[in-house]
Prior knowledge:
CATH class of the largest domain: Alpha Beta
Number of helices: 11
Shape: globular
Strand content: 5-15%
Mean pLDDT: 95
Distance between the termini: 34 Å
Strand order of the largest sheet: 2-1-10-9-8-7
Low-confidence stretches: none
Number of strands: 10
Order of helices and strands: HEEHHHHHHEEHEEHHEEEEH
Radius of gyration: 19 Å
Structural class: alpha+beta
Helix content: 25-40%
Amino acid sequence: MTQASALPLLPTQPADTPWPTAGWPLGEIPAHVDRAKLVAHIERAFTATAPADLEETHALVIVQGGRLIHERYWTGFGPDVTCPSWSKAKSITQALVGMLVGDGRIDIHAPADVPEWREAPNDPRAKITLDQLLRMSGGLAFREDYVDGEASDVIEMLFGKGKDDIGHFAASFPLAHAPGTFWSYSSGTTNIIARAAQKAAGLKGEAFETFMRQRLFDVIGMTSAAPKFDAAGTFVGSSFCYATPRDFAKFGLLYLRDGIWDGKRLLPEGWVDYARTPTWQQPEAVAENTPYGAQWWMGLGGEGSFSANGYHGQFTCCIPDLDMVIVRHGKTNALQGPHVKAWIKAIADCFRP
């Protein structure tokens, strides 16, 4: 499924560390860490007046070796406050697809099950595979823009005329590029994936939410998770799954542990490697973005790391070489986003020799 040999090894759960299903075991910041430097980075984000370059940081959770070693919250926030996922939900969607792959219900290399693309004979979209969609390479003409006043298909999908049936809305766009030849980040693409996953499971709405809880959330103790659905019963897998920062860290730990939780494999073997294997991107996309895998981003926490990234600066970053998960939630505009990414990288670097 992937070129796993090119990827850094994923760490296993230490034998003396309980899984955090019922709650996080506590740990300590390692002695070799420059505490003064680490504290300075953290304090800068949580001053009474938010710094201009980071804007508001509502939560920071750091897990290392499977233990919670540090957390910090903005005034009015805390361990029990649920935060928006925004596009971190895309990585949850990827996990759900993986479970259906493991069940034998989905072949990601076959054409995606999208009824709109089979209505007309010889529709070129009918050849788009689920793999191409997962890698944001389906080629659809979907505009991912969050700037007020600019034409935005994602805003129209989530809040406008597409909100009652996001899967149909997203699937209605024509091709702008031949499938597999052009990378373009698209929330519409993920909602097509979410609907296809539900069709494969034969479930939608409350029934699919039950599937999500029984197969994922309940198993890892992600009890605060609150996925949202449209009027057609489709999980808004691009954008809407609320949870506490601690619970988002559990989801990150599942991926850091190669899809295994407390001795049970939840994601099929190779699925996490598939998520973190870089997708081909045209040069201009590489210049504007960090590398992308399959509904996960690469490199946020240093070489070999991979992350679930969301609008306004929501991040769950998995860092294999440090056996670490860093979760950050806040409200930061896109122009300041690179500063937040650099801040997360700086925190991770404090733990490196």
